[in-house]
Amino acid sequence: MGVRNRSRGPPMLMSKITPAVPPAIPMPVVATIEQILRAVREHLRMKVAFVSEFLHGRRHFRHVDADEGTRCIEVGGSDPLEESYCHWVAEGALPGLIRDPAEHPFTAGLPATAALPVGAHLSVPIRLRDGRVYGTFCCFAFQPDQALTDRDLATMEAFAQLAAERIQQDVDADERREAKRALVGAVLRDRAIRMTFQPAFRLDGSGVAFAEALARFRARLYRTPDQWFATAAEVGLGRELEMLAVRTALDGCGVLPPEIPVSINASPDTIVHREFADALGGSALDRLIVEITEHEAVRRYAELNEALAPLRARGLRVAVDDMGAGHSNFRHVLQIRPEIVKLDIGLVRDVDADAAKRALLSALTGFARGIDAELVAEGVETEGELRALKALGIGTAQGFLFGPPVDPWEA
């Protein structure tokens, strides 16, 4: 099938061909693939340089650099693989260096020869760590160029190796992402989540203020709940996992004494979705508290408040946690006006031995009173902390001093 260059060995290693790379080519210390393409294209005086990926029988253009005014191929475009020079170079049917397509009868039948047109052409297969061909690192001109040499092809091979290293990083990242997505997908499929409930107590001795629903995972791979939710968000399954937790928490409410309010956790992205309101049903929500878990700046408070308004009208209360942890949490309080404000655990820990923390908590207590919000201290672990919180006028507390999270039938 056409001309096969049997003298060519495997792609040259970077260490073997470094001397062939002209030192005059300017390159950043850590170059992007686009910068690599431009450096090679300009050095070889080509019109177009690109990196392609072979996928599902087509050649996809992933990175392109072209001379000003040249638009013959663009990122995101594709064409049939067998109509390309790239495919046949990777197959070994065409050499990596073609000075003039007229010298190779096989190229006459390739649509790209006349359509682009292709004159001089250099192409190097990009091989990943596992040996498979990802695609090719190519450049071409519209006219033949008899001045091109094997040294120029060696230059292409050197920079193709650089590009391959960048691509391998992306491939590795994609594979890690898919592995994470599969883990979260298995949790969703198997509903591998259960709810425990940790009570918050009123410090005047009048009993339980509410019980917070906390997710626990039954997956074989151990991760903390925070890690599971962060991973789900990273791979685009954050809302799905949160909604599984919300539904599981609502199911657990039926086991708890009916007079105990229940707090569930949800991010703004979940709350604004119609699925959240649907899960709460159409009945009164006086028993329910939603604790907003977002610690970063909320982009659209108006949308969040719009989603919360009809639920609050039915009795839903809103809590903001980690007050005092950063600027965004203060903004949540000012924009959302929650009924409950939960103090950051860092302010509570050792508060009995830290005058500065007590001064800040005293100010926050006055602030909460001014906006008619209930202040809750999280993470209380010692009797000393409890005494200090009572002295500051904080009326509700939660933490291991009172007991760990338990299954609903034990609450």
UniProtKB/TrEMBL annotation:
Coiled coil: none
Upper classification of the organism: Bacteria, Pseudomonadati, Pseudomonadota, Alphaproteobacteria, Sphingomonadales
InterPro entries named among the record's database cross-references: Cyclic-di-GMP_PDE-like (IPR050706), EAL_dom (IPR001633), EAL_sf (IPR035919), GAF (IPR003018), GAF-like_dom_sf (IPR029016)
CDD domains in the cross-refs: EAL
Official protein name in the record: Diguanylate phosphodiesterase
Gene Ontology MF annotations: cyclic-guanylate-specific phosphodiesterase activity
Pfam families the record matches: EAL (PF00563), GAF (PF01590)
Sequence ranges assigned to domain EAL in this UniProt record: 176-411
